[in-house]
Amino acid sequence: MSQWRGPHRRATAPALRAHRRRPTDDGGNVNDDKETDMVQRVGVVGAGQMGSGIAEVAAKAGSDVLVWEGKQEALDAGRARIEKSLAKAVDRGKLSAEDRDAALGRLTFTTELADFADREIVMEAIIENKEVKESVFRQLDEIVTDPGAALCTNTSSLPIQAIASATANPGRVIGLHFFNPVPVLPLVEVIPSLTTDEAVIERVTSYATGTLGKTAIRAKDRSGFIVNFLLVPYLLSAVRMVEAGVATKEDIDTGMKLGANHPMGPLTLADMVGLDTCAFIADVMLEEFGDPAYACPPLLRRMVQAGHTGRKSGKGFYDYS
Known about the structure:
Layout: E1 2-3, H1 14-19, E2 41-45, H2 49-60, E3 64-68, H3 72-91, H4 97-105, E4 107-110, E5 121-124, H5 130-143, E6 150-153, H6 160-164, E7 173-178, E8 187-192, H7 198-211, E9 215-218, H8 227-244, H9 249-259, H10 266-273, H11 275-289, H12 298-305
Parallel strand pairs: 2-3, 2-5, 3-4, 5-6, 6-7, 8-9
Antiparallel strand pairs: 1-4, 7-8
Helix pairs in contact: 2-3, 8-10, 8-11
């Protein structure tokens, strides 16, 4: 494992200090028979765009954050991504240099899943592949020693129950779906499976809202959950309009921005989400629901095959090079 070496390694965020206060009754008096469930040690599996964003937010909130990637190069890239994001926040006046260093000091990086043994919440954000996720969760279930620890998946579409059922303790597994960019968007979806323990739901929801400062909405375990169930057909419809020559991509985006008061058009949004991600979610939802509204348009499929996956590749419906 490696830690970021900064001048504020032991600094404690105000949010964390606040959560460590002794519980009180309604009159503000200390009530020693109430125990807090303050989560301090969290793990993030995956240091890609989503994983690094989750790790950044957790570190800024005062958590001790352990970040895993299987390869050192990917781990180094994730560390650099977090450092760059925090540096931008300082440059824009949204974060002090002291708070940046304190957040970086709470981050530790590893290529060994075994280091997650003492984590209280683990948040997985790796490739959207059911078999790969199941394998990782089987390992985490054996490694993480706290029986009440929550094992969260950031999947945007895969069944939580399938991932949970791959473990010996499915009650610990829950969906916790963040939105990109994680440091900016305030929403998380909390998705229990049929076997998720109520205490795990409460722990995860409390951490997401009380510590991370997110707004949590709860969804049933069905493909797409809430947001993507509504969003993906909208994005696919915009792609079909381009494909059919109904309008230019610019006019489609302008129409939805000015006519529906959306902050960005559907094709710009698809590029930001990732066209490969859009295609993958569409395929999963089509398989589950059988609704042709979720069928991936040929144009989208060809763009993904060409490596034009949006902002992250430098080219999608728009050019970002």
